[in-house]
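Checklist before submission:
- one chain only
- standard amino acids only
- sequence pasted in full

Submission:
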Amino acid sequence: MPGPAGRTSVRPPRILAADDQPHILDALELLLRPQGYEIDTARSPALAREALFTNSYDAVLIDLNYTRDTTSGGEGLDLLSEIVAFDRGVPVVVMTAWGNVELAVEAMRRGARDFVQKPWDNERLLTILRTQVELRRALQQAERLEAENRLLRAEGRPEFIANAPAMQPLLEIMARVGPSDANVLITGEHGTGKEVVAQTLHALSARASRPIVAVNTGALSEGLFESELFGHVKGAFTDARTDRIGRFELADGGTIFLDEIGNVPVRQQSRLLRVLESGEVERVGASRSRRVDVRVISATNTDLRAAIAAGQFREDLLFRLNTVEIHLPALRERREDIPALAGHFLARYASRYRRPIQGLEPSALQALMQHCWPGNVRELDHTLERAVLMCRSSEIKPADLGLGASHPQDQNLEALSLEDVESVLIRKALQRFHGNVSQAAEALGLSRGALYRRMEKYGL
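Returned file contents:
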């Protein structure tokens, strides 16, 4: 008999089997392992839930009767309903020694793909599992292909340029998780394009027709945090002259993008955690909660695990935010994308400012490739905008890029404006601390918020 994974499978199918009788689980292992399956076992519904929460399976085989209730199938049916709600795509095959037509019908109604009665027929059980695994994998492959196609042509999203080898794992993850409702945490240095990734994930999802609401949590003062995110009612505080809807309610049915999540004050993190756990928001000053259906995508350049160790970030909040974590490489780690990105920005600004610019001189492109880009893609964007405005010919020249200001030792500081000098100092501080804004701000004698504003001003 051919192996269940087929000739094109890379990894063996993984099965979860749940039954409270050890000899049943042993028998399943003896049957399935020689056929090429990996099998995990659970002796109770609670252990099955734990396994499903931490691992991914190609199929689940569960008993309907457990020690608490050995005849009705109630425990197994409840477990079945939970599995289907948790992951509608995973096929569940149910089995029981007390099988009857009514129980089988109820199991199928709740989402089971098939039904076997103990003692099972080995060939029938193998056929059922092989069929369900092949169907599961075919559907997963179709979903991945569709997600990849949508990734290339999704409407209403920024153009996502990512051809460098360092970006390929990221694209694969985005294609897999984009169509889901999973919360995603995007990490990476400032200016790497985290908001573009968030918008692309939203465009790939079933929520694409609904809004994506972006919030820069790092720029919110502690006093405004709850009002901005959750809203307030008239009279809740001195300036609350009217009711105000919060960002979570605005994003109902869609996606909320919480940028700079690592800068949320510790006292506000517990309030955010409650919303993520309950799916309910309560406006400041209100006496009742409102339920919202929101997918949460967050982003940070902060090392959240280090922040947890320092007592600056809640570990349970991180668990809620990073069902899937996506790390964006710095631009210096994906230099192969610089020509395409530069061409994209050049075309955008030449059109916006109606400048008849055809491209970049080879020496200008070489300067772009050699620059260290502490401000990453955002800095490249602003550099090309400035170059389009400064260019006096049909092609961008190295002098138009203004990249020399990042090397003050080669510049006459007296010839620079105050803004240029400030930009130089900020760039050097970011380079020295490898993009860590908190450390750069401390070295410059600025608050993080003040440094964020200056970085935005100079396109860093």
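Reviewer check: The chain has a mean pLDDT of 83.
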